Amino acid sequence: MKTKICILSLCLVALGAQAQKTTKNWERIGSLGNTQHFYNKVYAFGKDSVFIIGNMGLVARSTDGAISWKRQHPCDKELRDILFINSKTGFAIGREGMILRTENGGDSWQLLNPGVSVDFKTIQSDGKQQLWICGPDKLLLYSPDKGNNWISKTFPGRIFCYYGKRCYSASSNQVWVSEDSGNNWQDITAKLPGHGGDYGFMKFQVARDRLYFLCIKGNELHIFQCETHPHWTKATSSLDRIGIDMTGLSDVLFRMPGNAYIISHVITLCGGGAPTRIHKTEDAGRTWREDNQNTRMGEGSANLSFPVEGLGYALSRTNLYRSPYTGKFENLGNDDSGLREPSFRPRMQRRGGSLLISAPEALQRLRIGSLEGHALRDLPLQGKEAEISLDGLPQGIYILSLETRSGARYNCKWIW
């Protein structure tokens, strides 16, 4: 049976050998559906909150881990970047001076006036009050009060980052730091270990109280790491051996020291598009392995987001993918696997080696099947609550089908 849903575990150690053989890789979130939109960025925080922004002012929001979505169009301009400084206050920026702010977690958005009409690129924050927005021609907008007021500044390079009460900027082969919110800049290129010129500085990233500074040289990825300013360490990784052309590199994301992901295009000479590939390192970039080798993702990769341990999102121009190993039950919704939209939503959770189920009406039957469609268990139920012992069931991913006495059904996929 052909299915649109492909599944990957980012935590292969947690699965048994049988599950590793049967699982595929990243799962495409089919509930986004076919639209006229293209997507620019996915931004996730916590276990359940996910936002996607794109053209025509699209802000797609999920509060249940990308199972269901609410689409909003608070403006008609293409949105480029999104950032939340807490669970309630967030910002989205885009073309022609577009700045949106929400103070209720994304329920509604208000338009801010920055005083300029340019195409904004990225937004940064100190996590409290201060904001920095990068525009064209090295324009840097600074707000000390969450967007109520804006001050125009400039930054010397091509990319920008705020970390540890300092502003950093980089160009093709130089790096600067500012100690006063971007008013004055000092060149610190010579302080980078092993710096040899002719780098292509591409990205800053803050993760786990460290600043990562990523650049390319030929087909090598150079990773500079700073824990305490101005002390840096460096790791280098050649990407030739895993078939990554640096021109197709879309995003590099560190989750913790030593653990990072690359999302890239496969550049082909014969045409046919550029499918997305994801590679993972667990030794700070010295070696990489492909993390979605059984899944062909959509073309035109955009970015990665890992909000919590064991949960990740990968975005292409038209599709969102997720690493599903979060220990949650996930509604499969409508797709061509034969499962229908559920007519009720039970409560299910694990307790030791048992599955606890409660429903708003009397239950009749629980069926457990494999991803390949094989029936594994068929259990009769009574009452609105049940505790099912699942001793002997190997670790893996299964399809659960729950039926009530009235004939209502609920289908989900489940990680055991």
TL;DR?
This protein is mainly β and 416 residues long. It has one helix and 36 strands.
Report on this structure.
- By secondary structure, the chain is mainly beta.
- It has one helix at residues 17-22, and strands at 27-28, 39-45, 49-54, 59-62, 70-72, 79-84, 90-94, 99-102, 110-112, 122-125, 131-134, 139-143, 151-154, 159-163, 166-170, 175-178, 186-187, 200-207, 210-217, 220-228, 231-238, 249-256, 259-265, 276-281, 289-290, 301-308, 311-316, 320-323, 330-331, 347-351, 354-358, 363-370, 375-380, 385-389, 397-404, 409-415.
Question: Topology, please?
Answer:
Layout: H1 17-22, E1 27-28, E2 39-45, E3 49-54, E4 59-62, E5 70-72, E6 79-84, E7 90-94, E8 99-102, E9 110-112, E10 122-125, E11 131-134, E12 139-143, E13 151-154, E14 159-163, E15 166-170, E16 175-178, E17 186-187, E18 200-207, E19 210-217, E20 220-228, E21 231-238, E22 249-256, E23 259-265, E24 276-281, E25 289-290, E26 301-308, E27 311-316, E28 320-323, E29 330-331, E30 347-351, E31 354-358, E32 363-370, E33 375-380, E34 385-389, E35 397-404, E36 409-415
Antiparallel strand pairs: 1-28, 2-3, 3-4, 4-5, 6-7, 7-8, 8-9, 10-11, 11-12, 12-13, 14-15, 15-16, 16-17, 18-19, 19-20, 20-21, 22-23, 23-24, 24-25, 26-27, 27-28, 29-36, 30-31, 31-34, 32-33, 32-35, 35-36
